[in-house]
């Protein structure tokens, strides 16, 4: 049985049995009147008929069905893969002498140095993109000025058409962003995503990444504000100077900083209010990722979701538009415990809107570099998922094989 045959194998109508054969999977997928959920379930039913124990390919089965439903074809692909990284700095990460809170183990200047490495093609995302055939684009949406003027090449790294000069403000003493700045950054994300997809002439999977010292503190503050969980249950070490990634001193400092910020803004007013939360304790690059995710969803393009910070942006995008849940593929489990709170929130939104719930993150490798490293590394898995639904024989095909032919 190929994907163009019935998606299930009901018995032929006999006597008083009025059951009709199911329509072919290809017909269901291409039918504009069918919901995403119906298409997804039909694809899962077809995958169940393949020559393997039911469910034995785990997350690959969910990804294959999701890609088929989004692309409306029995032969989905992930060949046109793009990665868009947004970079910005955070006022809370500035040195105390500059009005910040020293929330990170690294100085703020590191953000700019990472972008310089990306511009030269020698950073982590540069290397991983090349070896996985992923088109990489990096947008400076709000980095702090460096000690030396450096103009981005315009090839890999580009300046946003509108940006938050110098980054956000310290959210312990004021709003990180104005409401207008939040909208500007969201629109930058939408525009840059649309632009990259058009330049590639067709993108069937997109990834988002981030660069910005202090953005794990910002992401933790957003989750705590929006979900009203205890701050201590969200915070991890972020960018650490130790091999095991554990720095209890940094964690304790983050908890104090975020609690101070929530006390200043009034945490109850931010709960379930994504745009207000982005203004109060957000980041320019996180706002841009939210915009990019919303734009990709609008075009039914699958998103391989990276670790903690990108998952936070995905959660916020789902709060704004629950249909975003359709396109999300969780690529990597973060070492930051707040990620699972964000995933749980996304799951609740999907369930409430009758959208198939995503599987747990595919990779559990202790990845915590950022720069979309986890999702770029997962691209071969997504291509495998597409190959399975496109090319794997059905159990019926295998049982009908004749030896020697």
Would you kindly provide a written description of the structure presented here, covering whatever features stand out?
This protein has about 400 residues and is of the alpha/beta class. It has helices spanning about 25-30, 35-50, 60-70, 110-120, 125-130, 180-200, 215-225, 250-265, 265-270, 275-280, 285-300, 310-320, 340-350, 375, 380-390, 395-400, and strands spanning about 80-90, 135-140, 155-160, 205-210, 300-305, 330. Strands 3-2-1-4-5-6 form a 6-stranded parallel β-sheet, sandwiched between helices. Helix 2 crosses helix 3 (about 60-70), helix 3 (about 60-70) crosses helix 15 (about 380-390) and helix 11 crosses helix 12 (about 310-320). The two termini are about 20 Å apart.
> Helix coverage percent of residues?
40-55%
Number of DSSP-assigned strands: 6
What is the assembly state of the chains in this entry? single chain
Strand order within the widest sheet?
Answer: 3-2-1-4-5-6
Question: Number of helical segments?
Answer: 16
Mean pLDDT: 88
What's the SSE pattern? Answer: HHHEHHEEHEHHHHHEHEHHHH
Query: End-to-end span in angstroms?
Result: 18 Å
Q: Label the overall shape.
A: globular
Contiguous runs where pLDDT drops below 50 for at least 5 residues? 4-21
Major sheet characteristics = 6 strands, parallel
């Amino acid at each position: 049985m190929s994907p163009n045959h019935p998606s299930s194998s009901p018995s032929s109508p006999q006597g008083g049995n009025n059951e009709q054969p199911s329509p072919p999977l290809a017909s269901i997928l291409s039918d504009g009147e069918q919901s995403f959920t119906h298409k997804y379930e039909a694809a899962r039913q077809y995958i169940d008929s393949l020559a393997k124990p039911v469910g034995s390919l785990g997350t690959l089965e969910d990804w294959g069905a999701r890609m088929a439903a989004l692309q409306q074809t029995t032969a989905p692909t992930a060949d046109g893969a793009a990665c868009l990284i947004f970079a910005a700095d955070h006022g809370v990460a500035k040195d105390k002498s500059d009005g910040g809170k020293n929330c990170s183990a690294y100085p703020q200047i590191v953000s700019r140095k990472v972008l310089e490495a990306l511009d030269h093609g020698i950073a982590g995302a540069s290397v991983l993109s090349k070896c996985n055939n992923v088109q990489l684009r990096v947008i400076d949406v709000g980095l702090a000025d460096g000690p030396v003027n450096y103009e981005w090449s315009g090839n890999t790294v580009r300046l946003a058409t509108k940006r938050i000069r110098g980054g956000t403000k310290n959210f312990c003493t004021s709003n990180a962003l104005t409401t207008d700045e939040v909208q500007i950054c969201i629109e930058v994300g939408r525009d840059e995503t649309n632009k990259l997809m058009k330049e590639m002439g067709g993108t069937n999977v997109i990834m988002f990444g981030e660069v910005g010292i202090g953005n794990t503190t910002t992401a933790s503050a957003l989750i705590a504000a929006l979900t009203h969980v205890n701050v201590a249950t969200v915070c991890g070490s972020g960018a650490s100077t130790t091999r095991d990634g554990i720095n209890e001193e940094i964690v304790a400092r983050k908890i104090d900083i975020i609690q101070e910020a929530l006390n200043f803004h009034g945490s109850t007013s931010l709960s379930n209010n994504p745009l207000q939360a982005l203004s109060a304790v957000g980041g320019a690059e996180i706002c841009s990722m939210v915009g990019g995710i919303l734009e990709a969803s609008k075009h039914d393009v699958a998103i391989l979701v990276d670790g903690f910070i990108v998952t936070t942006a995905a959660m916020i995008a789902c709060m704004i538009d629950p249909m975003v849940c359709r396109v999300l593929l969780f690529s990597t489990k973060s070492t930051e415990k707040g990620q699972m709170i964000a995933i749980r929130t996304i799951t609740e939104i999907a369930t409430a809107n009758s959208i198939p719930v995503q599987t747990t993150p595919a990779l559990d490798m202790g990845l915590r570099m950022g720069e979309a490293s986890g999702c770029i590394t997962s691209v071969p898995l997504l291509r495998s998922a597409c190959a399975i639904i496109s090319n794997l024989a059905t159990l019926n095909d295998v049982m009908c094989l004749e030896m020697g032919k």
